[in-house]
Structure formats: C-alpha cells, structure tokens
Specification:
There is one protein chain. The chain has 20 helices and no strands. The chain has 497 residues and is an all-alpha fold. Helix 11 packs parallel to helix 15. The longest helix has 33 residues. It is globular and about 65 Å long. The two termini are 38 Å apart. The mean pLDDT is 80.
Length: 497
C-alpha cells in the first residue's frame, strides 16, 4: 500500500509539475499582454460561478472511491445526479448574470457569465467512469487525462491572448478545457453511463456532508474575493488573485497532488486504526519536508518572483505574496486531514473546521481590508488560517489517539533547515541587490533558488544524521538515491555489448 501511494503521489506531482510549467509559461505571457483589471474581471465571474457550483458539489466521485465495492447502479446514479446538478448550475449562472454585474458595478460580467454557463453545462456530461483511474490507483491514466485538458486550454488561451489582447482569451481557454475534458472522458474510459437514480439514497448518505464542506470551503476561499472586489475594485482583485496563486504554490502544486494520491490508500486503511495513524504520520512528515521550504522560499523571494513572472506593473502584489505564502504553509500542513476524515466517513469535522475559519476570517477581512487595503486582506487570511489549522491539528490528534508529540515528530528538522535556508537567502538577496545583480531579478532568482535548495538539503540531512537517522521521509529519499547510485555503478561495471 505504501508503495502504491508513493507511486501515485509521484504521478500526481508529475501532473502538477507539468500543469504548473504550462501555467507559469501562460502567466508570463498573459501578465504582459493583459492588465490586472482583466484578471480581476474574470475573477469576479469565477467567484460567482464557484458559489453557484456548490449546488453540485456533493462529491459523488469521492463516494465511489470510498465505497469498497460500488455497483453499476452507483456509477449510473452518480453520473445522472452529476448531469442534473450541472445543468441546474448552468441555469442559475444565466439567471445571476445581471445581478452580478450590478453587485460589482461591472456590465461586462453579463456576456462572460453566459459563455461560462455553456462550459458548465458541457462539463456536467463528463464520463463518471474516469473515477476508476483513482479507485484502481492507475494514476498514469489520471495524469494523461488531466494533462491533455490543461494543454488544450493552455494553447487556446495563449494563442487568443496574443491575437486579441483581451480577457476573452481567459474565457475561451476555460471553455476549451471543459470541452476537452468531456471528449477525453469518453475516449479514455470505455464505461458508458446510463440515466438511473437507483442508488441515490446510498450516495446522498455519504455526500451530504461533502456538500456542506464544499459550501463552507467556498465561504473561506472566496469571501476575500468578494470583499476585495466590492471594496477595492477589479484591479485590486486582479492583484490579490494572481498574487495568491503564486503564494499558494506549495499548497496547490506540491501538496494537493499528494493528498489526491493518498485518499484511496487511506480509504483502505480506515478499518485498521493503527495502520491509519502510522500512515498519517508518515505522510505528514513528507508534507512538512516539501511545504516548509517551498512556502518560506516563496515568501523570501517574493519580490524577484513577482518581477520575473508578472512584470513591474504587478509590484503591489509582492506584499500579498509574502503574507499569503506563510498562510499557505499552514494550509498545506492541514490539507491532508480532509482525506483522513473522508476515509473515516467523518467529513462533519472538516465542515466544522471550515466554519471556524470563516467565522474568524469575515470580520477580520471587513476590518483590515478597509483600513489596510490589499495587505489587510492578506493579513486576515493569515490569522484565520493559523488559528483554524492549530485547532484542527489538536482535534485530529485526539480523534486518532496519536501519541503525544507524534503529530509534530517530523516537523522540527524541516523547520530548522527551512529557517537556515531563509537566513542564507536574505543575506544573498542583500548582497545581490547592492552588487552587480542589482536590478536583474532573473539572475537573482537563478542564483538564489539553487543556493536555497542546496542549503536546505544539506541542513536537513545533517539534522537527520544528528537525530540518530530516524526512520522517515529522509531515510526513504536517501535509500532511493542509494539504489539509483548502485544501479548506475552496476551498469558502468557491466555495460551491455
């Protein structure tokens, strides 16, 4: 099971890496062709649509993964409900197009939302059989399915952005991605769904709390967009949206693929509490090793990152990236909990944690955004995330009866190594900002990133050795490197004729 999870996580990380490479190339082009207000305008529409789509966020695919032996009735019912809720969402988006344009005082939202409603309707007919890619832990197929959708969306978006220099390129790219997903789901998966509601009671018994979690998650993730868009306008929302995307790279691009891969494994471990506890501790150790240096690194290198990726006119996003990158570290640490609660069929706990986050976030947003602008919104998110994640860590430790300090066992080594890396990077940035590399953020990043990686890797290895070479992610990685080195030596010693 551990090997299967590790292999799945590797495929998911590869998928996310490929997706992010496309995303970064796209961002490099779009940020220079479009203006922040264009991104903000699309973010307004997406925020409203994301709220509407909550009507269909019942997680029927998750229910199929969580069940040990789902039948064809379960698959057909899940697809039928997916279509029904998808068409309902598309209709509501059409109805809300005008009220949304009034709320944001932005008439351009009306045609944008009408076009995106078409995309939502198409997406609802995707083949539910693709869920078997995860159920059977066939992550190579899952990777191909996801990658092709992103490639098609990327080509359409970038081509039209260069040709039109309009926010409509973003809309067209989204539409193309959803059409590609619909087509690929039937070409890559032989299963052919039929209309049925035979298993609706069984599916809803699991999915009701998934829906409530989606509702609360939307409130925590999108409230800042509504507040910033309403109080500060589309340009500020564009800065906040793109800045948060860069800041949350550790959580969205590195940790989310791991969580996607481990859920089927957790579902199989759920009947054995001891195995599940150890599995969680092992996965958390791996998450700490990745999330801490990535989050602290993004926060430390925020200025050259923004200048290189987005350009000088996005300089106001630097402070947002720095603050939200720290929030991303906390978010990444707790993101794996949702997979555990799903496996145990206790998603009510996640719902309560999301409600707690929202209750803390909303008043902070209204207060700090009015007083400090964009930076205030970022600080509100950081404070709310820190408090809610701390509470959830305590709850999951109690529910799973984890031994004292077991949850934090894998934290101290990557934390000290990350802080060491940050100290070196700050000194390095100070030297390069005053030396020959001043005013050259590309070269600053080219120097800082490999230095940061080397410093972190060396510090982490030394701390692991000093701690007695404890079993954990470091031991697994070093053992793997040893196997690769042995294989290379063997091939050199016995070359093929």
């Amino acid at each position: 099971m551990k090997r299967a999870i590790a292999k799945g996580a590797a495929w998911m990380l590869l998928a996310r890496f490929a997706e992010r490479c496309l995303g970064l190339v796209s961002l490099l082009i779009l940020a220079r062709v479009l203006v922040p207000a264009d991104f903000g305008l699309v973010a307004m529409a997406i925020s409203v649509i994301a709220f509407v789509e909550l009507a269909g966020t019942f997680g029927f695919d998750l229910a199929l993964i969580q069940r040990e032996h789902p039948t064809r009735e379960h698959y057909d019912t899940a697809w039928t409900l997916q279509v029904a809720f998808g068409l309902l969402c598309a209709g509501i988006i059409v109805v809300l197009a005008y009220p949304s344009s009034w709320f944001f005082n932005e008439p351009r939202l009306i045609p944008i939302m009408l076009v995106l409603a078409i995309g939502r309707a198409m997406q609802s007919f995707e083949n539910i059989g693709t869920v078997d890619f995860q159920r059977q832990m066939n992550f190579a197929r899952d990777f191909a399915f996801s990658a092709w959708k992103k490639v098609i969306s990327f080509v359409v978006t970038v081509t039209l952005a260069v040709a039109l220099e309009s926010y409509w390129a973003l809309i067209a790219g989204t539409l193309a991605g959803r059409l590609a997903g619909l087509t690929l789901s039937y070409t890559m998966q032989p299963y052919r769904p039929r209309f049925s509601l035979a298993a609706r009671a069984d599916l809803f018994a699991f999915s009701t709390w998934v829906f409530l979690v989606g509702l609360a998650s939307f409130a925590t993730q999108r409230t800042s967009h509504f507040v910033v868009g309403r109080q500060l306008g589309p340009a500020a929302l564009g800065l906040y949206t793109v800045g948060s995307e860069i800041a949350l790279l550790p959580a969205t691009d590195l940790i989310a693929p791991i969580n996607r891969a481990v859920f089927p494994g957790y579902a199989r471990m759920a009947s054995d509490p001891g195995t599940l506890r150890q599995g969680l501790v092992d996965i958390l150790g791996a998450i700490w090793i990745i999330a801490l240096p990535a989050g602290f690194g993004v926060a430390t290198l925020a200025q050259p990152l923004v200048l290189v990726l987005l350009g000088p006119r996005w300089a106001e996003a630097v402070a947002v990236v720095q603050i939200l990158a720290l929030a991303g570290v906390f978010h990444a640490a707790a993101s794996n909990h949702y997979s555990v609660w799903l496996a145990l069929n206790r998603t009510k706990v996640t719902f309560l944690m999301e409600v707690l986050h929202f209750v803390i976030l909303l008043p902070l947003l209204l207060l700090l955004c009015r007083k400090l602008g964009l930076i205030g919104a970022a600080y509100a998110e950081l404070i709310a995330t820190m408090v809610s994640v701390t509470v959830e860590c305590f709850v999951i430790s109690r529910v799973l009866a984890l031994p004292r300090f077991a949850y934090l066992a894998g934290l101290w080594r990557p934390l000290i190594a990350s802080l060491t890396m940050v100290g070196v990077l700050i000194l390095l940035l100070g030297e390069t900002s005053a030396g020959a590399l001043a005013g050259h953020p590309v070269w600053q990043l080219a120097l800082a990133i490999p230095v940061g990686v080397i410093v972190y890797a060396v510090a982490l290895t030394l701390l692991w050795l000093l701690s007695g070479r404890r079993a954990g992610p470091e031991a697994i990685v070093l053992a793997r490197f040893g196997q690769l080195a042995s294989g290379l030596i063997a091939r050199r010693a016995h070359p093929r004729d």
